[in-house]
What we know:
single chain, alpha+beta, Beta-Lactamase, 4 helices, 36% helix, binds methionine sulfoxide
Amino acid sequence: MNTQQQNYELLISQVTALTQGESDMIANMANISAVVFNGLADINWAGFYIYKQSQLVLGPFQGSPACIRIPMGRGVCGSAAETQEIQVVNNVHDFAGHIACDAASNSEIVIPIVKNGQTVGVFDLDSPSFSRFDGCDAEYLSKIVDILANTILADSQSTETPLVLDNISLETTV
Ligand code: SME
Protein backbone atom coordinates (compact mmCIF):
# COMPACT_ATOMS: atom_id res chain seq x y z
CA MET A 1 0.00 0.00 0.00
CA ASN A 2 1.52 3.35 -1.02
CA THR A 3 1.31 6.60 0.96
CA GLN A 4 -1.65 7.90 -1.06
CA GLN A 5 -3.63 4.74 -0.25
CA GLN A 6 -2.55 4.86 3.40
CA ASN A 7 -3.74 8.46 3.67
CA TYR A 8 -7.08 7.54 2.13
CA GLU A 9 -7.45 4.58 4.52
CA LEU A 10 -7.04 7.08 7.37
CA LEU A 11 -9.67 9.37 5.83
CA ILE A 12 -12.03 6.39 5.39
CA SER A 13 -11.68 5.50 9.08
CA GLN A 14 -12.36 9.12 10.07
CA VAL A 15 -15.42 9.33 7.81
CA THR A 16 -16.69 5.99 9.11
CA ALA A 17 -16.31 7.10 12.73
CA LEU A 18 -17.92 10.52 12.15
CA THR A 19 -20.94 9.18 10.26
CA GLN A 20 -21.51 6.06 12.37
CA GLY A 21 -25.08 6.04 13.66
CA GLU A 22 -25.82 9.46 12.17
CA SER A 23 -28.53 9.65 9.51
CA ASP A 24 -28.63 13.40 8.93
CA MET A 25 -27.37 13.78 5.37
CA ILE A 26 -26.42 17.47 5.70
CA ALA A 27 -24.44 16.85 8.89
CA ASN A 28 -22.62 13.91 7.31
CA MET A 29 -21.87 15.89 4.14
CA ALA A 30 -20.50 18.74 6.28
CA ASN A 31 -18.11 16.49 8.19
CA ILE A 32 -17.06 14.55 5.09
CA SER A 33 -16.21 17.75 3.21
CA ALA A 34 -14.12 18.90 6.20
CA VAL A 35 -12.29 15.57 6.54
CA VAL A 36 -11.47 15.41 2.82
CA PHE A 37 -10.57 19.10 2.44
CA ASN A 38 -8.22 18.98 5.42
CA GLY A 39 -6.88 15.50 4.66
CA LEU A 40 -5.89 15.83 1.02
CA ALA A 41 -3.03 17.93 -0.32
CA ASP A 42 -3.37 20.42 -3.15
CA ILE A 43 -7.16 20.89 -2.94
CA ASN A 44 -8.89 24.29 -3.03
CA TRP A 45 -12.53 23.15 -2.83
CA ALA A 46 -14.35 20.03 -1.58
CA GLY A 47 -18.08 19.82 -1.20
CA PHE A 48 -21.49 18.64 -2.22
CA TYR A 49 -24.27 19.58 -4.57
CA ILE A 50 -27.68 18.08 -3.74
CA TYR A 51 -30.23 17.14 -6.40
CA LYS A 52 -33.54 18.92 -5.82
CA GLN A 53 -36.21 20.37 -8.08
CA SER A 54 -34.49 18.89 -11.16
CA GLN A 55 -31.21 20.71 -10.59
CA LEU A 56 -28.13 20.64 -8.36
CA VAL A 57 -28.12 23.00 -5.39
CA LEU A 58 -25.03 23.86 -3.33
CA GLY A 59 -24.66 21.83 -0.14
CA PRO A 60 -22.04 21.63 2.62
CA PHE A 61 -18.52 22.47 1.42
CA GLN A 62 -15.05 23.71 2.35
CA GLY A 63 -13.37 26.38 0.27
CA SER A 64 -14.38 29.66 -1.34
CA PRO A 65 -18.05 30.53 -1.95
CA ALA A 66 -19.37 28.67 -5.02
CA CYS A 67 -22.16 28.90 -7.58
CA ILE A 68 -25.44 27.88 -5.98
CA ARG A 69 -27.46 26.17 -8.72
CA ILE A 70 -26.23 23.95 -11.56
CA PRO A 71 -28.64 22.55 -14.19
CA MET A 72 -28.46 18.80 -14.85
CA GLY A 73 -26.02 18.10 -17.68
CA ARG A 74 -24.18 21.41 -17.24
CA GLY A 75 -20.54 21.63 -16.19
CA VAL A 76 -18.56 18.84 -14.61
CA CYS A 77 -21.03 18.43 -11.74
CA GLY A 78 -24.10 18.39 -13.95
CA SER A 79 -22.44 15.85 -16.25
CA ALA A 80 -21.64 13.53 -13.33
CA ALA A 81 -25.17 13.89 -11.97
CA GLU A 82 -26.82 13.21 -15.34
CA THR A 83 -24.60 10.30 -16.45
CA GLN A 84 -24.09 8.89 -12.92
CA GLU A 85 -20.45 8.42 -13.92
CA ILE A 86 -17.32 9.76 -12.20
CA GLN A 87 -15.81 12.73 -14.03
CA VAL A 88 -12.04 13.23 -13.83
CA VAL A 89 -11.01 16.43 -15.61
CA ASN A 90 -7.27 17.05 -15.94
CA ASN A 91 -7.71 20.56 -17.33
CA VAL A 92 -11.04 22.22 -16.56
CA HIS A 93 -10.37 24.90 -19.18
CA ASP A 94 -10.64 22.19 -21.86
CA PHE A 95 -13.96 20.85 -20.51
CA ALA A 96 -16.84 22.16 -22.60
CA GLY A 97 -19.35 23.86 -20.31
CA HIS A 98 -17.11 23.88 -17.26
CA ILE A 99 -18.51 26.25 -14.62
CA ALA A 100 -15.70 28.32 -13.10
CA CYS A 101 -16.57 29.01 -9.47
CA ASP A 102 -13.00 29.59 -8.35
CA ALA A 103 -10.50 30.99 -10.85
CA ALA A 104 -7.76 29.08 -9.01
CA SER A 105 -9.18 25.68 -10.05
CA ASN A 106 -7.37 23.83 -12.84
CA SER A 107 -8.45 20.22 -12.39
CA GLU A 108 -11.52 18.59 -10.88
CA ILE A 109 -13.08 15.27 -9.90
CA VAL A 110 -16.81 14.74 -9.36
CA ILE A 111 -18.31 11.58 -7.84
CA PRO A 112 -22.06 11.04 -8.31
CA ILE A 113 -24.07 10.00 -5.23
CA VAL A 114 -26.57 7.40 -6.39
CA LYS A 115 -29.18 5.80 -4.16
CA ASN A 116 -31.55 3.12 -5.44
CA GLY A 117 -30.63 4.14 -8.99
CA GLN A 118 -31.51 7.79 -8.38
CA THR A 119 -29.03 10.67 -8.32
CA VAL A 120 -29.02 12.20 -4.84
CA GLY A 121 -26.20 14.66 -5.56
CA VAL A 122 -22.48 14.87 -6.30
CA PHE A 123 -19.23 15.18 -4.37
CA ASP A 124 -16.96 17.73 -6.07
CA LEU A 125 -13.25 18.38 -5.50
CA ASP A 126 -11.18 21.09 -7.19
CA SER A 127 -7.42 21.56 -7.33
CA PRO A 128 -5.20 24.47 -8.37
CA SER A 129 -2.89 21.90 -10.05
CA PHE A 130 -3.49 20.36 -13.45
CA SER A 131 -4.09 16.56 -13.52
CA ARG A 132 -4.33 16.42 -9.71
CA PHE A 133 -6.75 13.47 -9.60
CA ASP A 134 -6.08 9.87 -10.65
CA GLY A 135 -7.72 6.44 -10.46
CA CYS A 136 -6.74 6.07 -6.81
CA ASP A 137 -8.62 9.28 -5.95
CA ALA A 138 -11.64 8.04 -7.91
CA GLU A 139 -11.56 4.67 -6.12
CA TYR A 140 -11.27 6.01 -2.59
CA LEU A 141 -13.58 9.01 -3.02
CA SER A 142 -16.17 6.54 -4.34
CA LYS A 143 -15.77 4.52 -1.13
CA ILE A 144 -16.35 7.70 0.89
CA VAL A 145 -19.47 8.47 -1.16
CA ASP A 146 -20.65 4.87 -0.60
CA ILE A 147 -20.33 5.39 3.17
CA LEU A 148 -22.45 8.55 2.83
CA ALA A 149 -25.01 6.75 0.65
CA ASN A 150 -25.33 4.03 3.27
CA THR A 151 -26.15 6.63 5.94
CA ILE A 152 -28.98 7.83 3.68
CA LEU A 153 -30.29 4.25 3.70
CA ALA A 154 -30.07 4.27 7.49
CA ASP A 155 -32.37 7.30 7.43
CA SER A 156 -35.17 5.14 6.02
CA GLN A 157 -34.96 2.98 9.13
CA SER A 158 -34.86 5.78 11.65
CA THR A 159 -37.71 7.45 13.45
CA GLU A 160 -36.56 10.89 12.34
CA THR A 161 -38.27 13.10 9.80
CA PRO A 162 -38.05 11.27 6.45
CA LEU A 163 -35.66 12.62 3.84
CA VAL A 164 -37.70 13.79 0.88
CA LEU A 165 -36.07 14.89 -2.34
CA ASP A 166 -38.08 15.30 -5.50
CA ASN A 167 -36.88 12.00 -6.93
CA ILE A 168 -36.45 9.96 -3.79
CA SER A 169 -38.66 9.63 -0.75
CA LEU A 170 -37.49 7.59 2.19
CA GLU A 171 -40.40 6.89 4.49
CA THR A 172 -39.97 6.00 8.13
CA THR A 173 -40.66 2.36 8.92
CA VAL A 174 -41.69 2.87 12.54
N1 SME B 1 -16.68 23.47 -11.64
C1 SME B 1 -17.95 22.88 -11.33
C2 SME B 1 -18.82 23.84 -10.60
C3 SME B 1 -18.75 23.72 -9.13
S1 SME B 1 -17.35 24.37 -8.48
O1 SME B 1 -16.15 23.78 -9.02
C4 SME B 1 -17.37 24.36 -6.85
C5 SME B 1 -18.64 22.43 -12.60
O2 SME B 1 -18.17 22.69 -13.71
O3 SME B 1 -19.67 21.78 -12.50
